[in-house]
Design a protein that fits this description.
It is a single chain. About 50% of the residues lie in helices and about 10% in strands. With about 325 residues, it is an alpha/beta fold. The two termini are about 35 Å apart.
């Protein structure tokens, strides 16, 4: 695509101290089968910048690089939106790799099913470590998350997330940008739906998402996800579904079974059966017994991390009304 023509898509990526990830992401974008896009990198106050890498790759990509003071990923995304030229705005994380047909697949999907806002699933690339593949399974499997992260089977209506999300400039002009909060992509998707825009899942438009590289970081991430679900409930009464309660119920159930097993060992059978299901499903989907074994702790970390975060925020914000109270949440919703 000529540099002086308007691209169909602007890929906006906030980054903070992750130059190696940006290098891999840009290299995957260089190899796209369709180059009708630009890349907008927003460096959010990094001390270890990717400026040199972006300068190096700019000869092969229609690329804009910006450096700004650290204010958070949502503000960085909005900063990039205001400087993007594309008709559609695409959002991916810095720890993503793009299949060579990513842009081409979006075009085909939009031609077949026009949408104001859309998103796709994430997957594990063959180059990822076994732990990363196990974490990917725990975040995408029907047996752990109910398929809510872009799978074809789901217990909840699809909600685009910023590891693989796009919407038109018209959407942004009417709805506004991202809020600086946890689960800001779910908040954004909710506002887009409430504004009457169409939101679709494009199952063929996938990205390879590295996620966290170890279990400790993964626990922290999903614990925050669980807490943020309560914030979303306060912002959007009625948005809470049964699927959001499942990890918390899983935690309560596991504790109950373990306590009951002190009196009767048969109470451990449901837990052992679930462990076996996870192991078999992960082994078959990844064709690796090793990944299947890693998927067991990954799945329990995902469920316990999210579930305990959910219970912690539910107890504090809803039962005890501590921290940011309901009135503050409502004011935030009306004021932004």
């Amino acid at each position: 695509m000529p540099r002086n023509s308007q691209p169909s898509f602007s890929i906006i990526v906030p980054v903070y101290n992750r130059p190696a990830e940006i290098k891999e992401l840009l290299e995957s974008l260089i190899n796209q089968s369709d180059n009708d896009f630009q890349v907008v990198i927003v460096e959010d106050g990094s001390s270890d910048t990717c400026r040199d890498i972006c300068n190096e790759k700019s000869s092969s990509l229609n690329l804009k690089y910006f450096y700004k003071d650290n204010e958070g990923r949502s503000i960085a995304r909005n900063y990039g939106i205001d400087r993007a030229d594309g008709k559609y705005l695409l959002f991916v994380d810095s720890d993503c790799l793009m299949p060579t047909d990513y842009i081409q697949s979006i075009k085909k999907s939009l031609e077949y099913s026009p949408a104001d806002c859309f998103g796709g699933p994430d997957a594990a690339h063959e180059s990822f470590s076994d732990i990363q593949k196990a974490i990917n399974f725990s975040m995408t499997s029907f047996f752990t998350t109910g398929g809510i992260r872009g799978g074809k089977r789901s217990l909840e209506k699809f909600t685009p997330r910023t590891f693989n999300m796009g919407f038109s400039k018209e959407v942004y002009n009417k709805v506004g940008g991202f809020r600086e909060m946890f689960s800001e992509d779910i908040d954004m998707s909710t506002r887009i739906k409430q504004a009457g825009f169409s939101v679709l899942l494009f199952p063929d438009v996938k990205v390879f998402h590295k996620r966290r590289i170890d279990f400790k970081k993964f626990w922290k991430q999903v614990h925050i996800f669980g807490m943020s679900r309560i914030t979303l409930h306060l912002l959007y009464p009625g948005s809470m579904k049964l699927v959001h309660w499942l990890p918390a119920l899983f935690v309560i159930g596991c504790v109950g079974f373990i306590v009951a097993s002190f009196f009767n060992k048969w109470f451990l059978i449901p837990l052992l059966a679930y462990i076996l299901i996870i192991f078999i499903a992960a082994t078959l989907s990844n064709k690796s017994v090793r990944i299947g074994a890693y998927a067991v702790p990954a799945s329990f970390i995902q469920l316990f991390g999210y579930g305990t975060g959910f219970l912690r925020a539910f107890t504090g914000k809803i039962i005890l009304r501590k921290g940011r109270d309901i009135d503050d949440e409502i004011k935030r919703r009306k004021g932004q």
